[in-house]
Amino acid sequence: MNLCVACGMPMRAKADFPLGDETKDYCIHCSRPDGSMQSYEEKASSMAAFIVRTQGIDEGAALGAAKSMMARLPAWKARP
Amino acid sequence: MKLRERQKRETRQAIIDAALRVFARDGILASTTAAIAREAGLSQGSLFAHFGTQEALITAVIEDFGKGLGLRLHELTDSGANTRDVLRAQLGAIAEREDFYARLVVESTLLPGRARDSLLLIQSAICFHLSPAVEADTLSGKIRPMPLHLLFNTWVGLLHHYLANRDLFAPGGSVIERRGPELLVHFLSLIAKGG
Predict the structure, then answer these.
(1) CA-based nearest residue in chain B for residue A53
(2) What is the pLDDT of residues A49-73, one digit of tens each?
């Protein structure tokens, strides 16, 4: 099973891929409406917003946790 | 993959698996690298060649556990799952390694930052499935409208209380197996419309 390089989500169904394009290594949640991959800042911000909405933790703490999670993923590992 | 590279990867995974068993048995922060090396059948020197510090090993174990739990949750939850289905899948996935997960719950605030973030990642994986299920159940009138984070934290607070005190709620056994169905029924009745 493929894992999204940008968020780690398992990608099984065609609907998991951006615009249904199964050649992509990132998932639909990490893509923009045109199918391109979100930038680091866009992804960190959307991931933090999700954590705040679902777990209710402080915004700054959520952003820190989101960046910590992203640092382990292939798409962002190489960032200084 | 070259043989040496494969062996290195297999040894790394064997250390992670051994550490998880020792953490579950002795506690995450109370475990020693000597006990983990013994469990893995390696010298402490070999262990440190793969993980430079105990903190790096703890983080790797929690990440590996979180990844496995996330994948299991994905397998157990289909796209049309409702709130009950997702929470039941969560209980099922945790029950498979309840001993370790309970340690994680009890020690989470004492863990180093990156390891602690991994627990947030585990909760995020659950919320990823829970969020659309709750939205659909709210729209169809099965659940009372309420902020998702309060719904989730109420559930996690209940579940984690039982896990943290599993020796009292289910001595010598699985608290999820023994109390999980009751907790699920109770929580669903709390959030049900008219409940």
Answers:
(1) B149
(2) 999 999 999 999 999 999 988 988 8
